[in-house]
């Protein structure tokens, strides 16, 4: 972990804690039960997470030559709150029960109200959907309350809306391709561009840079750096999703296979499989042994090696873009180290 990254994480977590303390007290004043719901939202957000988006928000602000670093850090939590709103809804869509090694919010709420309702599963899911919506509102509140000129905040809100539009396009394509019989590698990479690259890397950097008043040249450098890195991030995520250590990732390494998710690993394996391999990939029983056979085929077809090589190639492209830019030495060093970390991380 980059030392500066860890320091920024700590600072961001402190701001998130302060934000949730205020919101919990506010909700408890209306109803003790509402206070419990906010407390569980706080627990969900604070259970882990790399805080990569608020960190990049702050670095984007520096790239735009922003001077009020404290205000930028205060505002940076907006994108983390927005991110967790999307995670809550994503867990419901994917029917996941774990997030960062802890129960997902809809499972937590189901447990919370199990003695209050004859249908706790439905009510827990309903409360989580609304809870995700509330986290989105919190995100917009954190940005709109930031101590920046109103015209800069309005521009930033437009960028935030574009981030959400892009990630929704990616999510729609991801859902569509899960049921499509024939999906191309190019289509899978387009999902990675919209669902991850634009959302996780480019968007937060541009959001911070916009608050600083960055010019078009800086925004182009951000895109040149962010898009290949974001795709590499998603490819590495898919690798961890299949071969990662559950204790470190906080999620089962079987979930992508069980949900028949279309990703680069499985698609490449299908295209390069032969005979019994192809039959297994088409109709593998979702038992422990069946899933292990799928993972072995992914390795034997060279799919894992291909994915790792592609992610490294994209990271080098990203590093090249930032190295030849006019960004400060501090920013360049940070973003180059971050690019290397993206494909070295274990969670």
Structure description:
The chain is mainly alpha-helical and 347 residues long. It has a domain at 187-347: Orthogonal Bundle (Farnesyl Diphosphate Synthase), CATH 1.10.600.10. Helices cover 79% and strands 1% of the residues. It has 16 helices and two strands. Strands 1-2 form a two-stranded antiparallel ribbon. β1 and β2 (102-103) form a beta hairpin. α1 (3-30) crosses α4 (69-94) and α8 (185-212) packs across α9. The longest helix is centred in the middle third of the chain and has 30 residues, at 150-179. The protein is globular and about 65 Å long. The protein starts with a helix and ends in a 5-residue tail after the last helix. The model has no long low-confidence stretch (mean pLDDT 93).
Main attributes of the structure:
about 0% strand, two-stranded antiparallel sheet, about 350 residues, 16 helices, globular, about 80% helix, mainly alpha, 2 strands, Farnesyl Diphosphate Synthase
Number of strand segments? 2
Radius of gyration: 21 Å
Q: Helix/strand-derived class?
A: mainly alpha
> How many H/I helices?
16
Instruction: Name the shape in a single word.
Output: globular
Task: Calculate the mean pLDDT score and round it.
Answer: 93
Tell me the name of the CATH homologous superfamily of the domain at 187-347: Farnesyl Diphosphate Synthase
CATH architecture of the domain at 187-347: Orthogonal Bundle
Report the helical percentage: over 70%
- Beta-strand proportion: under 5%
Enter the CATH topology name of the domain at 187-347: Farnesyl Diphosphate Synthase
- What is the CATH C level class of the domain at 187-347, in words? Mainly Alpha
Strand order of the largest sheet: 1-2
Secondary-structure element pattern, one letter each: HHHHEEHHHHHHHHHHHH
Distance between the termini: 12 Å
The biggest sheet amounts to: 2 strands, antiparallel
